[in-house]
Amino acid sequence: MTKFSLIIFLFLFVFIISIVIRHYYLKMKIKKDNDKIYKILFLAKIILLILISFFISLTFSSYKAGLKKVVNYSTFIDNIILIDYSTSMLANDLKPTRFDQAKNLALYLVENSNNCRFALILFGDDPLLEVPLTDNIEYLKNIISTIQINDDYYRASNILLAFYAAINLLESSPSFYKNIVLLSDFDFDQVISEKLNEMLLSNINNLYSVIISSEEGSKIWLPNKKTYLVDKFQNEVFSSPNRQFISSILKLPNSLVSDFNNMSYNSIVSIINSNKKLTSKMEKHETYAPRELNFIFGSIAAFLMIIFIILSTPIFQNLNYKTKNYRN
C-alpha cells in the first residue's frame, strides 16, 4: 500500500469512527429505542463504510497479486544501430543528405540481417531510444523511414551518452553476440575515455562505424529555413569528420571504421551475421509479472457504495419506525 492510499484509508477510517461516535451521542441524548433491526442496519452500514474505505485505498495503491503472462522482446538484443541525429547530418555533401543516407543504410541492415534482434538509438544532445525488434521488421523499418531532423533549432552530437546508453542496454541483454553499428558524420568535439574504452571492449563483440560524410566536409543546409547554418558571428558552419576521434576508435581491437563512399553494405551484414550459432531465432520469451488489481478494487468499492446508498434511503431509514408501530 502506498503512502497516498494509506492516507486515504486513515482519513476514511477516522470519518467512520466519527459517525459511530455521533450515533451513540445522539442515542444517549434522545434516548432512542434499542430496536434490533435498527442495530443490524446501523452495523451493516458501518461495515460497508469500512470495506468501502479499504477498497478505495487499494484502488489508489500499487498492490498487485497473482501472475499474468507477458511477452518480453526488448531484453533480447543482438545489435544496436546508433544513428547521428544532430543538425550537421543535414549537410548535403551526400545526396540528398547525410541523414537520409544513414537511414538507407540502417534499413538495409535490418532487411538483410537474419535471426538478429535490433535496437535503435538516435543521438543528438541526448540519446532518444527506441527498442523495436526485427520480429516485427515492418514496424522497425517504418520508424527508421519516418524519422526526420527538425532544423528549427540546433542539435549537437553527444556520442559519449549514446555509447553509454547502448552499453547499458546490451549489458541487460542475455544475448551472446552483441554488436554496435555507428552511423555518424563524426562532427563532434569529444574524446573517448579509458573507462569507455574498457566498456566497449568488455560488452560488445564488434563496433562497426561508418563515416556518413565526404572527406572534404560540407556546409550545412537547413531545408525548412532554406539557408545554410551560421554561427553566432553569422559565419557559415562547415562540418567535417573529427579524425582524432576516429583514430581513437580505430585503436580498439574490436572496432572497424569505413568511409561511406568506400564502404560495402554486405561487409556490415556479414559481421552482424558472422556468428549465427550464437544468435537464436527470434522467439517469444514468456515471463510472468504481477497482475494489477486496481480496477477490480475500484469496482468492488463502487458496488459497495451502491449498497450503502440503498441502505441509506428513506425506506430503510423508516424501517425501524414501522417495525416499532407494528409491534405496538
What's the CATH architecture of the largest domain? 3-Layer(aba) Sandwich
> What is the 3D form?
elongated
The name CATH uses for the topology of the largest domain is Rossmann fold
Report the helical percentage.
40-55%
Outline the structure in words.
Helices cover about 45% and strands about 15% of the residues. With about 325 residues, it is α/β, with parallel strands linked by helices. The protein folds into 2 domains: about 5-65 and about 295-325; about 80-270, 3-Layer(aba) Sandwich (Rossmann fold). The strands form 4 sheets. It has a 6-stranded mixed beta sheet, with helices on both faces. Helix 1 runs antiparallel to helix 2 and helix 2 runs antiparallel to helix 9. The longest helix has 28 residues, at about 5-30. The protein is elongated and about 100 Å long.
